[in-house]
Each structure stands twice: as structure tokens, then as C-alpha cells.
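ok so for the tutorial part 2 we go from a plain amino acid sequence to predicted C-alpha cells. step 1 is just haveing the sequence, like this:
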Amino acid sequence: MNRVCIVGASGKLGRYMVWHALDRGYAVTGVCREQSVGKLDAFRERITVVPGRTDDRAVVREAVAGCDGVLTVLAPWGVQQYASGTAQAVLDAAGPGARLVFSCGWHITRDGQDVYSRTFTTLVKVGGWLAKLFRYAEVDDQVEACRRVFESDARWTVVRGSDLDEGESEGLPVWSRHVGDPVLASNRTRRVDFALFMVEALTNDGLIHEAPAIVGCQTPSALSHAADHGL
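step 2 — the prediction. this is what the C-alpha cells look like for a chain of 231 residues:
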């Protein structure tokens, strides 16, 4: 892995991914909206920034050219199919064999085997309805974006994040194939560690065609799981 592109680089998760990628010595190209370029000023001497919407196919094509890996934040902003447009642009523009890693939430399910609490399901349903009503976000479009990824032949990973906290890194999160696994019960991950898992996934072939649901490695459920299994 030599050069990576981070699509959605100016957001909180994106900036952490930039930091982790640079820490590994990768050459980094970032994509973000023109009005958000200033958020990347801390890295401006170390990365290449391609300004534009992340669902703009021409912008994404320019940014991913020559990249070995692409990290993509599937943000469901607005009601113009932003997430699915972003996913499709990356899938179409990335080079053959490139490692593609996408971020989303626990509400995405790949095989229907995830088990959600009634509270979680209600929050997703009501929150998604309100977000769409006020034209703020379109959760269903993030589902569509992931469906397109799952059906592609690319070397993809979809990382499903729990609720996020700020703070210093606690280390690489642990993961499970299905929400409902006791190891995930704490439902908390440091945002910096969500980004760490994304960047680590670039070189982990065991995560190709996986949709890991993650949780912080220092949360009670993760520590309990480690103790029960002698880890």
C-alpha cells in the first residue's frame, strides 16, 4: 500500500483517517467539498486535496487515479442520493485490484442475521424519518449505497461503526460479523479508533468481502469477551 485516497476527508472521521494514513507513510489524496477544504489545513503540506462533492464522478475519478486503496465515508447527507452516488463513483473509478473500505453505521445489514434491540430499531426508524422530512439526511440511501458495494466484485470492506465517543485512542477495535453478538453490547467506539480500523483494513485481506461491526477494545463487553476467551 503506497497511495490512498480518502473520500470525505474533511469530516471528523475523515481527518482521523488522514492522520492514521500519514502515520503509516502513505501518500494521501483527500476529497472534500470546496467549502470544507480549510478543515484540512493542518495537513496541507502533506496531502493532495481534490475539492468537490464526493458523489461527483469526475472529482472521484481524478482523486483515486493511481491509488492502491480508497477509504470512503458514506455520509447520507441531504435527499439527493448522496451516499449511493458516492459509493457508485468510487466503485466505478477505483483501479482494478484497489482495496476499498467504506464506513457506515450498525443499521446496515449484509445478510439479515443482525439482531437489533427494539430501542435501536425505533431510533433508526424515527430518526431516519425526521431526517428525511427536514431534508437533512437519507438513511435509506446509505442502505442502498451498501447494497451496491455488497453486490460488486471489488475488494471491499464495509466497516459498521457503533455509537462514537471522542477522546484519545484506546487501540484497534474488536469486531463481529453480526450486531447482537455479546462482544458488541457496549455499543461505544472512540472515533479515532473507528478511523484506525478503517486504515488497518486496507492491508487486512481477511476483511475482504466482510462487513465487520466494531466496538471499542476497552469497553466492558470487549473486555468481558477477551476474559471469557483467554485473550
